[in-house]
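Before relying on records like the one below, remember that each one covers exactly one chain. Contacts with other chains, cofactors or solvent are not represented anywhere in the record.
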Amino acid sequence: MVGGAEDPGDDGLISGINVTPFVDIALVLLIIFMVTAKYIVSQPQIPVDLPRASTSQNSLIASTVQVSVNREGQFFVDARPVNEAQLRQIMDERHRANPEIRAIIAADRAVSHGRVVQAIDIIRGSGVSRFGIQTEYANPVETGR
């Protein structure tokens, strides 16, 4: 029609989809996922100042027990505090359940050498012969190499 009047065949149909609400919801879900993902993946860790080594392995071992010794010399198994008898009992149980189990020992660099040897003795006394000492990878620039 002439004179700016609307076309009688146009019933006010929407010819496009408004995606703004969808994008808003997607961004909110993305933010929620990013914030909560860290809590889902991360395990509680014992604050241990690891010694540095120029050779380090970052491979994942399937059947491992994390044994930590903090600065005060207290033992932890998978981030739970234990005493020597409990460490021995846990290692005995884990070795009976899986003879191929491995132990990863993370000891603070300030802890006594004797305390680390005591942890190794308890682990080996339980029949676990495969264990490793966890270290941080030392940057060659920091070590002067």
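Confidence is low (pLDDT under 50) at residues 58-62.
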